[in-house]
Amino acid sequence: MTAPQSIHTGSLDVLGGEVLLDVSHVSMGYGDGEHEKRILEDLNLKVGHSEFVSIVGPSGVGKTTLLRGLSGLLPPKRGTVSVAGQTITGPHPDIAAVFQDYSRSLMPWMTTRENVAFPLQGQGVGRRERNRRAEESLEEVGLSGQGDKYPWEMSGGMQQRVAIARALAYHAKVLLMDEPFASVDAQTRFDLEDLVVNLREALGVTIVLVTHDVDEAIYLADRVIVIAEKPATVVDVIETGFGTVRDQVDTKADPRFQDARGRILTRLRKA
Amino acid sequence: MTTTHTRAPSAETKAPRRSALLQRDWSLLAQRLGALGIILALWQAAVLTGLLPSITPTVPEVTLGLWTAVTSTSFWTALGQTLSAATAGWIISCVLGVFLGLLIGPLRWLDRSTSVTVEFGRAFPTIALMPVILLLLGATTSMQITMVVLSALWPVLVQSILGARRLDPGIADTVRIYRIPRLLWFRRVLLPSALPFVTTGVRIAASISILAAVGIEVLTQVPGIGRMITLAQEAQRWDLAFAYLFFAGLFGWTVTALLARAESSLLAWNRQASG
Ligand SMILES: Nc1ncnc2c1ncn2[C@@H]1O[C@H](COP(=O)(O)OP(=O)(O)O)[C@@H](O)[C@H]1O
Ligand SMILES: [Mg+2]
Predict the structure, then answer these.
(1) Angstrom distance (rounded) from CA B148 to CA B146
(2) Which of A3, A152, A270, B56 can bridge B273 by disulfide, Cβ–Cβ 3.0-4.6 Å?
(3) What is the reported pLDDT for B260?
(4) Which of A27, A28, A30 to mutate for ligand 1's pocket (most ligand atoms within 8 Å of CB)?
(5) Considering its fold, how many domains does chain B have in total?
(6) What is the DSSP letter of A14?
(7) Which of A39, A183, A209 to mutate to test the pocket of ligand 1 (most atoms within 8 A of CB)?
């Protein structure tokens, strides 16, 4: 078998199969009318089922803004975001999110289990089913039996696992992640990256992750979308071709990884 | 509340800390009793040397008065009347204050438009309203409860507004992403998040409630401890009057201390999460 040893310029469309998340001509900004500060200009992107897409760009380019748009927290100034063919007008049951600041997204007055089960309570799922699904998700992120702990009794890495478990228990089709591993130490970060890679493989969730870390973006993704400039637009798309399995040493030593890295860093330096 | 019980710390860490705490408790108690003893001694000396007006009862007289009080049924009836009016007013203040505060706090426009009213209400000398309320409701228990509410509502309201304002934006986003329904959000997110502030208001309101309930009784014909103080004064029974005063203070203090205890065990997560 001859694996392709060079990276490909990717497309903003999915390679084959169904489109799950469709970002169409999205422009975003803050303020209205004359006072509008345009952050993102005419962004287009299609993400397929079970695909892992990274969006990488320098700090302040508008990654968080974009993710707020995709999650329905902040409506785009122009364009539409749709999931499974449905245009979203606000937070949507098919979309879950994990933010950078885990310590601020978990509720300190709830146990880990209650935190994970809480969105299900909102959907009217009964207590037993809620707890079962919470336990299942905690197991998937490697926290089985830790449901009675409070978030503040856990390390940062564990807290972020809880936030991921909460998203999984919600059974959303798309998982949005905003610099999810930026606040943990290097080893924990590698562990969490591999956890997310494995979850994608095991559960088939679709993941869109934004980060300023080029290595992380390449390591995790099937496709890396590079955004830059003011207002931000897509300046490059790279197909990594790593498949669904990763290894912190081997994958990062892969010539394709190095190629992609060089290409993106050069492109971002220009911006 | 099922959401806020504490996890027991592990046995190793708890044992030494507890005995150290106990020791501190005892020495603190000794110091406080000492301070009380000095005050009583000074009082006695002041009465004996004629520094205080001659009608002031001596310490033994007041002690005897305390005994007379606790052995009479009329005292306990009066105490019950005062405490039930104070409690009723306090509960109404808490429910109303928390509800309004948590409603106003998160809504920026409502918060801005009501802030002057709230500040005014807080600073307003409620006692000045008494003639009007008295005219409307007469010297009745409902007048007394109304006055208690008008006095005790403000700290709960102000603290609840402050508490609701401090909801973490990360949690606010999470609640929106997962489409948590309004009522569940109120009960399981906003209320617990505001609770560290709310409990302070609730505690202050408790002592105000007792003060107001007694004060109303002193000033009007409403039955209770305050009324007994007035009656004792009119009958020149200064020993009894002082004994009742002492009880009123003691109850206010006990209630506040108990609430502070309850508060610190209810809010273990707050101390842990922020420190
Ligand atoms: N609420 C806001 N109001 C106005 N400007 C904002 C707001 N949030 C972010 N911005 C601005 O938008 C730009 C992009 O921010 P952000 O999306 O957080 O970037 P990134 O996540 O890529 O670091 C920044 O210049 C930031 O100052
Ligand atoms: Mg950001």
Answers:
(1) 5
(2) A152
(3) 86
(4) A30
(5) 1
(6) -
(7) A39
Q: How many CB pairs under 8 A join A and B?
A: 76
Q: Which CATH number does the domain housing residue B137 bear?
A: 1.10.3720.10
How far is A140 from A175, CA to CA, in rounded Å? 15
Q: Which residue minimizes the CA distance to atom 2 of ligand 1?
A: A30
Q: Is A150 on the interface with B (CB under 8 A)?
A: yes
Enumerate the residues of chain B whose CB falls inside 8 A of the CB of residue A122.
Answer: 178-181, 184
* Structural domain spans, chain A: 8-94+172-270, 102-171
pLDDT digit string (tens) for B56-98? 888 888 888 888 888 888 888 999 999 999 999 999 999 999 9
Residue nearest to atom 27 of ligand 1 (CA): A60
- Lowest mean pLDDT across A164-168, B96-100, B107-111: B107-111
- In this predicted structure, the answer to whether residue B3 has a pLDDT above a threshold of 70 is no
A71 at B interface, C-beta within 8 A: yes
A199-234 residue pLDDT tens:
998 898 999 999 999 999 999 999 999 999 889 999
Question: What's CA A111's distance to the chain center, in Å?
Answer: 25
Taking the CA of residue A68 as reference, the ligand 1 atom at the shortest distance is 17
Per the domain annotation, does B1 fall within a domain?
A: no
User: pTM of this prediction?
Assistant: 0.81
Atom of ligand 1 nearest to the CA of A178: 21
Instruction: Give the per-residue pLDDT at B150.
Output: 93
Q: Which residues of B touch A105 (CB under 8 A)?
A: 170-171, 173-174
pLDDT per residue over A25-37, tens digit each?
A: 999 999 888 888 9
Distance from CA of A111 to the nearest CA of B (A): 8
Domain residues for the domain of B114 are 61-274
Query: How close is the Cα of A179 to the center of ligand 2, in Å?
Result: 7
> What is the rounded radius of gyration, in angstroms, for the C-alpha atoms of chain B?
23
Euclidean distance between CA atoms B123 and B44, whole angstroms: 38
| Spatial contact of B36 and B30, defined as CB atoms under 8 Å apart | no
Q: How many CB atoms lie within 10 A of CB B42?
A: 11
Based on C-alpha coordinates, what's the Rg of chain A?
18
Which residue in the block uniquely carries the two structure tokens 């606790």? B70
Residues with CB under 6 A from ligand 1: A 30, 37, 39, 57, 59-65
Task: State residue A1's pLDDT score.
Answer: 42
Pairing status of strand A19-30 against strand A78-83: antiparallel
What's the count of helices (H) and strands (E) in chain B, helices before strands? 12, 0
How confident is residue B9, by pLDDT bands cut at 50, 70 and 90? Answer: very low
A8-94+172-270 maps to CATH 3.40.50.300: yes
